[in-house]
Amino acid sequence: QDAFSAAEIRAQFPVLQTRAHGYPLAYLDSAASTQQPLTVIQAVSDYHRLHHANIHRGVYQLSQTATRLYEEARASVARLLNAAEPAECIFTRGTTESINLVAASWGRANLKSGDEIILSVLEHHSNIVPWQLAAEATGARIKVVPMNDAGELDLDAYRALLSARTRIVAVNHVSNALGTINPVREMIAAAHDAGALVLIDGAQWVAHGRTDVRELDADFYAFSGHKLYGPTGIGVLYAKRHLLDSMPPYQGGGDMIEQVTFAKTTYAAIPSKFEAGTPNISGAVGLGAAIGWIDGIGFDGVSAHEQALLGYATERLEQIPGLEIKGTAHAKSSVISWVMRDPPVATLDVGTQLDLQGVCIRTGHHCCQPLMDRMGVSSTARASMGIYNGREDVDRLADALLGIVSAVRKRGPASVSRIAPS
Ligand code: PMP
């Protein structure tokens, strides 16, 4: 095992000390949502107990403190992403809202009939549907980058899709369903050569490695706080200043204006222009604390630990009879998807049986139905690991899967839902 102390880190997560069905929790669903360390819980709690007030317009000290905490969180986000300035980091509800913001604001202002939007077959529905809405409203068309059977995007096909008609490319940095790490830097450079902008859905990357939007030269970068050991209901849209300056507001309301009359309204400068209404102040504070916390651990350690764990989990799952791993890309984050073929066991049954032994995984289409169609399955079972996981979690998973296989072999597939946990 690597030098990184997952046990020490795990001890900082109250929920990981709880039990499910009488078993210690083996939490293997961090791609859906990470758990929160005490530091984050404490920061949110302190904010509520001691510092809460509405921000930006208060003349009194408490409001100014709340404003400072909110803006400090934005500065933390800018450091995490290496943005040129905090104003380029807009707080949203999450990745979904960040992408909707770009598709609605930039999309409707810039797309027209005959223009093309390039997505990939690996996308989450939240990086498909907003573009379909924008395409329907403007007459633009969507093109899709295919992948090989390992779950890697076909870069030759991607380059062939790029043309003078391409206005924007929207792809994920890491696939939530398969774990594939996409060569986004190369993809961004190719898109820029073709004169197109690029949005990166970073939901599944930011917790796993260093992010540098300027080195990537990303035009837009989106992520969610709750996949980075922070709270739900808070996320970020990074965009280059000149793009944000030229985009129309996404929503109208308080805090995003300069001057309002019934004849005409002028808008505030960024980031306020894109943050109408009272934002999720405590969520931002929690996200800022999460960024500070993970920074203290360091992404080199995070990545080495997770890659070692991924290697171990892959080895153990490969030894399970009839289990087929979906997504065998050369570069992967700490996600393993699989189906059980022989004996066949429905993924829902797998998830339910694992739950009875305190092992939390996700089953289903993972909001990636086009990807499931491409792979010829309707669902997969998915285990995803965070920095608090250790080999014991992987062993619990693999041992339970072996138990399922032997029970089904003994009693037949119809009996799977009656297998008692050992
Ligand atoms: N994109 C990817 C790749 C994701 O994994 C997710 C969350 N599963 C999302 C977008 C949407 O994130 P959120 O639900 O936090 O808006």
From TrEMBL:
Keyword Transferase: yes
Keyword vocabulary terms for this entry: Pyridoxal phosphate, Transferase
GO biological process: cysteine metabolic process
Domain Aminotransferase class V stretches: 27-397
Cofactor(s) this protein cannot do without: pyridoxal 5'-phosphate
Catalysed conversion reaction: (sulfur carrier)-H + L-cysteine = (sulfur carrier)-SH + L-alanine
Annotated EC: 2.8.1.7
Gene Ontology MF annotations: cysteine desulfurase activity; pyridoxal phosphate binding
Family: Belongs to the class-V pyridoxal-phosphate-dependent aminotransferase family. Csd subfamily.
UniProt name for this protein: cysteine desulfurase
Source organism: Thiorhodococcus mannitoliphagus
Taxonomic placement: Bacteria, Pseudomonadati, Pseudomonadota, Gammaproteobacteria, Chromatiales
